[in-house]
Amino acid sequence: MPEYCWYFIGGLAFYLMRRFGQDLLLWLLVGLTFLLGCRAALPTYRFVALQAGHPMTEWGVVAALAAFYLLMAGVALDWFRAVDWRWLTTAGAVTYPLYLLHEYIGWEVITAVGRRVDPRLLVGALLVVMVGASWLVHRWVERPAARWLKPRLAASFAKVRGVHLPAQRSAPAATASPAATASPAVTAPSGAGRAAGPDRPVGPAR
């Protein structure tokens, strides 16, 4: 589903804004994903509108997408810090399982019983069932998997961060000139009667 990747990339950009602060590069990335997301959404909208028989102007699709981007920008920039509803944490936790489950299961159920059940009842029942199934996936699949994965991934990332790059070869040490390294020769004064030794200083002859 490459046409949907722009929304994920835009979400990552908003996360980076919240985590590290906004900058020009992230805003350019958000703008690019919005434009490409509009380009991807319009053909899907035309297909759905044709099937549903309830057309809507195309600028409405762009406006709806812009509203969602504005909402995510508000979350990233902490505009809603005063909103402290605890149920939002649970609602956020089930959104990804809901995204994975709802579409194809929903289409199959609608195709199977859509002509025999009132549409409003069917949509309401599907919404309740899909949200419940998404919570079960979060509770019994995602959370246990996260407990198993988290320490192992942390260890893997720590190992990656601990890998040292090959040390660059240091420049060869400067070679001192012979004049600087040569030990000065000790010359006995003229008339010295005794040779200098390790324990006998050089002195004048008696």
Terminal-residue CA separation: 107 Å
Helix content, binned percent: 55-70%
Q: Give the tally of β-strands.
A: 0
Low-pLDDT ranges:
190-199
SSE string, helices as H and strands as E? HHHHHH
Helix-strand makeup class? mainly alpha
The count of helical stretches stands at: 6
Radius of gyration: 38 Å
Mean pLDDT over all positions: 82
Oligomer: single chain
Characterize the biggest β-sheet: none
Question: What does the overall shape look like?
Answer: globular
| Strand content bin | under 5%
Characterise the protein shown here.
The protein starts with a helix and ends in a 25-residue tail after the last helix. With 206 residues, the chain is mainly alpha-helical. 67% of the residues lie in helices and 0% in strands. The chain has helices at residues 5-20, 24-52, 58-76, 87-113, 119-162, 178-181.
Keywords:
206 residues; mainly alpha; 6 helices; 67% helix
Write the SSE topology.
Layout: H1 5-20, H2 24-52, H3 58-76, H4 87-113, H5 119-162, H6 178-181
Helix pairs in contact: 1-2, 1-3, 2-3, 4-5
Q: Summary?
A:
With 206 residues, the protein is mostly helical. It contains six helices and no strands.
